[in-house]
Amino acid sequence: MLANQVDTDTIQVLRQLYKKEIKEFCKRLRSSGVEMVIPPLFMCPISLELFKDPVTLCTGQTYDRPCIQKWLESGNLTCPVTMQKLHDSSMVPNHTLRHLIDEWLCSNTRADTNKISIDSIKKICESDESTLENKIQVLEKVDYLSQELPFKNSCLIKLDFFGLLLEQVFSNNAQGSLRFVEKSLFVALKLMPFSDLETLNILTQESKYEVFLVLFEKGSICIKKSLCFLLEAISSGLQTRSLCEKLGKSVVLSRQIVRLIQQKSDHETVEAGIRALSSLSSIERNRKNLAIEGAVEGLIDYLINADESCKRNLAPMAMSTIEKLLVVESVKDVVINHAFGIKAIVKMVFRVSEHDGSECAINSLLIICSSSENGREKAIVDGVLTQLLLLLQSQSNGRTKTKARMLLKLLRSMWNEDLNNAI
C-alpha cells in the first residue's frame, strides 16, 4: 500500500465539500445503475476524479497536478488534506501510482460481444467515409460499453470518446441527421460524469457555438433536453465560466429555454428547462437577458400551476432562480404586476414538511417589499403574515427564521408608516 493513500474519512469530508450540484447532476446521469466508484487510491482528493497526472507534495499527499497547481496559484500555502504548512511547494511525479492506474484501466477494458476493439470503434466514429447507419450502429456499441463504467471499458474515457462525440455533434455536417445527434448526445451524457468538463470549451469556437444554438432552436425535444444537461455542466466549472457567459448572451437560447418550461405536459422537459435557467442565472451578467426573455414569468407560472408531486424537487430551484433574477431592477415590477407573482412567492415561504426554498422566498420578499408599497400590500393580502408565523413555529433552521423575523419587522414598520401617512 502506498504511503500517500488518502484515508476514507478524509474522502468523505471532501465529498461533502464538493459542489452539491455536481453530485446530484452525476447521479441523474448514471441511468445504467452502475455506481460511479473509483478506488479511493486512484482519486484526486480535490476533484474526486481519476488521477491524470499524479504528483506528490512534501507532506506525502498526492494530487492531480492541475488541481494542486490551481490551489497553490490561488495563494494557499497549505496541503489541502492535512492543512500542514508547505515548507516546500515542489511537486514530484508519482510514477508508481500512474503505473497502477494504467494497469487498472487496461484490466477493466474489454471488447464488445462482436469483438470490435474500442480503438476500432473510435476510428469508425471519426472516419468521414463511414455511413450514417454505421456510425449509429457504433454509437449503440459505445452506449452498451458505457454501462459498465468505470470498472470496465475505461478506455472510452482514456481515448476521450466524450470529446469525440461532441466534435461530431457540433460539426456543421451533423445537422443533417437529428437521429445521429440525439444518439450522440445521449451517449455523451453517459460518459460526461467520468470525463474532463473542460472539453466543453470546444463550444467557444464560433462554428460549434452556432451549431449549438441551431440545435437548441430547431432540434427535437430530446436534443434540447440533452443540451440543457450540457448547459448545467458548463455552468458548474470555473474552466467553462467564460463559455457560460457567452451562451447567456444569446437571445435565441434564453427564449428557447423559457419555452421549455412552458411545456406543461412533459415534466422531464420542464425540469431540464428549469435546471438550464438556474445554471445560466448563476452568472450575474446573464440575468438581464433571461429576465427580458420571460424567465421570471415562466418560473412564476410553474410555481402556481405545477402539481405538488412535480414541484417537490424543482420548486426550490425555481424559487432560487427568481431570487437571483431579482438583482435586475425591472424584475421586481414583473413580479408585482404578474397576477400571481407575489402569491407564488408567498406560497413558498412555508410548505408543510418541506422548508427547501423558504429562505429564497423570504429573501425575495425582502427585496420587493423594502421598496414597494404595492408589493407589501399584495404580500399581506396573499397571506404572508400567516406563512411567516407558521414558519417561526416550525423546525426550520435558525438563519431562515432570522430572515422571517426581519421580514415581519419590515412589514410592521412600513405598515405603521403607511398608516401615519394616510392619517
From TrEMBL:
Presence of the UniProt keyword Electron transport in the record: no
The protein's enzyme class: transferase
Domain U-box stretches: 37-111
One Pfam family cited in the UniProt record for this chain: U-box
InterPro entries (UniProt xref): ARM-like, ARM-type_fold, ARM_PUB, PUB22/23/24-like, RING-Ubox_PUB, Ubox_domain, Znf_RING/FYVE/PHD
Reaction equation(s) it catalyzes: S-ubiquitinyl-[E2 ubiquitin-conjugating enzyme]-L-cysteine + [acceptor protein]-L-lysine = [E2 ubiquitin-conjugating enzyme]-L-cysteine + N(6)-ubiquitinyl-[acceptor protein]-L-lysine
Keywords, sorted A to Z: Transferase, Ubl conjugation pathway
SMART domains linked to this entry: Ubox
Pathway linked to the protein: Protein modification; protein ubiquitination
Domain of life: Eukaryota
Keyword set includes Hydrolase: no
TM helices/strands, residue ranges: none
EC number(s) from the headed UniProt entry: 2.3.2.27
Function: Functions as an E3 ubiquitin ligase.
The protein's name in its UniProt record: U-box domain-containing protein
Organism name: Rehmannia glutinosa (Chinese foxglove)
